[in-house]
Amino acid sequence: MARDPRYDILFEPVKIGPVTARNRFFQVPHCNGMGHQHPHGHAAMRGMKAEGGWAVVSTEECEIHPSGDVTPYVEARIWDDHDIPYLSMMTEAVHRHGSLAAVELVHNGPSSSNLYSREVPIGPVHQPTSYYPFQARAMDRQDIRDYRRWHRDAAIRAKKAGFDIVYVYAGHDLSMPMHFLQKRRNQRIDEYGGSLENRIRLFREVIEDAKSAVGDTCGIAVRFAVDEMMGKDGIAADGEAKDIVAMLAELPDLWDVNLSTWKHDSQTSRFSEEGFQEPFTAFVKTLTTKPVVGVGRYTSPDRMVSLIKKGVLDMIGAARPSIADPYLPKKIEEGRLEDIRECIGCNICVSGDYTITPIRCTQNPTMGEEWRKGWHPELISPKASNDRVLIVGGGPAGLEAARALGLRGYDVALAESSTELGGRVNKESRLPGLSAWGRVRDYRLGQIGKMTNVETYLDSRLNAANILEYGFERVVLATGCHWRKDGVGRSHAYPIPGLDKANVFSPDGIMAGRLPGSGTVLVYDDDLFYLAGVLAERLAKAGLKVIYVTTGDTASSWTTNTLELLVINKHLRKLGIRVIPSRDLVGVKDGVAQLEHSYGEEPEFIPVDAIVPVTARLPEEALYQSLIANPDALKDAGIKSVTRIGDCLAPGLIAYAVYSGHRYARELDANDMGEVKFRRPLPLMATS
Ligand code: ADP
Ligand code: SF4
């Protein structure tokens, strides 16, 4: 299909100094947990973005020197010439598809750990490092000269590695130019501290150094956080940021502007809408003639066009939308808007970096698997048999299996016991703040709807007899799971005493709209991710008095990995919810909950009218057990395999369910189906 002419403007080329981007789609730097440790995977993932139409594809932070080592996080690295071949793998993968490769050079100064290099961290003044119990020392003039030399040398190496754009990075409360800009971090009394003219000096010098070193052939981009969201204590869009942009306006070849820190830059859909950065970054274009890139979880092409036309941005920056759909630009170009797999804003991608593991994505199960499994987000091998597949359950696992099997050409029947497809995504996306999660369902329904070889059957609860009778060769059980009501979970191997006699409401019940009528509800969170917090919000908004008790040190403690921890904890308190962290629910008697303190303080007794235990789930596996209990019956029915996927196999994240469904579809009819098989990049033996 041809592109809608109203999107033509998105495909205009943009000049970035000496290089030209073929369109306005710009994959800004983003972490991915692969970096220098998984260079093949990293290169293939970036190459996929270029293939999908992103005109510029950037690395994540790329450390320039051992004194700016961010271990244990795994980012890119360009310490010396040994790194060049690894980075070249990426630039070649990007160039193969006609895109420009950008590198985000970084020295994190006092935000570095140097846990690997064991160098003493350095910074504008003596100060504690951001995340570790030791200090950075103040840089003297020689240190500043050294830092500039490292940055310059790194830029030259980047050019050798084939990069077309070299970033000077001042963002996220992380990099040296940012730390010199920040008043609170820079109280130097020499020409690099004090007035803004002085604090901006290093930033300016490093941009000039990069320009003189490689600016003849490389575009020099600046990444600058215009607001640290801390009022007058930080850089602010209505404060010094304007002066900074004005003072450097025409110096770089491109401005990439955003918010700091990362939690403000990558806000989740629970707390912010598409375009949430616009009010902060919109001023930049009024102060420079150079192209401006900005982000804001943009997935709507109409919104993108309006940003360009209104003069807010010149290029549409994206990290997460490019992760969820590496082919987003191409789909707009080809007039296939309904095929766009929109980011749901859940930040599971971020959790990869935070847990120092390769990136994964809820919407895009192939993310991070491009090299090690050879998975392509849009392509999949044709079917290898004429086996017909029956999928039982239409949640994210069943829907993704149906979509991907359908794409392979298999005949698929999907039976769902309820009257709507979507499973847990339907339930969860009705909770406060989670409506965008419905995109997991919507994308798959849209795709399946176009397939003549995938039939869906609603209101169809299947039992073993039905399945044997239908005689599909392959049976996939995607029947999901349910929340326990007995309190068993991480902290309790056995049911919590008294819960069986208490007024207990399960998370499933609340999601289905069955709420306590009135009074005080105790939400007991031993799951530690998002759900208990969202349920507490749901209950509070229904007018109930909510007490949130968690075995974690904070509410929703695992959300530190999705950048939401602080905002959730503030949010719950704002809603009037009493949060009691570091406590275990050890029993309930006569409407009184007994809490035990993690630090051994006296037990606490709280009168409650209802309890919602959010502890653990059990798979809906009865159907599976009854089928496999009778192998002869399966054989007689012509059933070759019965496979559990998603939450029916093991309750987990929505991302795991999608991945599980996808993996089943990829592997069907492979000789080694179900084997754990992926390529591993083994370290090379050092030669010197
Ligand atoms: P997952 O996350 O693994 O996809 P979900 O809980 O989201 O799991 O979805 C499971 C779906 O399976 C639910 O929509 C549920 O209604 C459906 N289901 C469960 N048992 C049966 C059954 N016996 N027949 C048909 N559908 C079923
Ligand atoms: Fe978007 Fe979630 Fe995928 Fe990240 S993991 S790109 S937030 S859908």
Automatic annotation (TrEMBL):
It comes from the Bacteria. Residues 388-486 form the FAD/NAD(P)-binding domain. Pfam families: Oxidored_FMN (PF00724), OYE-like_second_a-b (PF22620), Pyr_redox_2 (PF07992). Keywords: Flavoprotein, FMN, Iron, Iron-sulfur, Metal-binding, Oxidoreductase. SUPFAM superfamilies: FAD/NAD(P)-binding domain (SSF51905), FMN-linked oxidoreductases (SSF51395), Nucleotide-binding domain (SSF51971). Gene3D superfamilies: Aldolase class I (3.20.20.70), FAD/NAD(P)-binding domain (3.50.50.60), NAD(P)-binding Rossmann-like Domain (3.40.50.720). Residues 10-336 form the NADH:flavin oxidoreductase/NADH oxidase N-terminal domain. Residues 506-601 form the TMADH/DMDH/HD second alpha/beta domain. Its cofactor is FMN; [4Fe-4S] cluster. CDD domains: TMADH_HD_FMN (cd02929). In the N-terminal section; belongs to the NADH:flavin oxidoreductase/NADH oxidase family. This is FAD-dependent oxidoreductase. It comes from Dongia rigui.
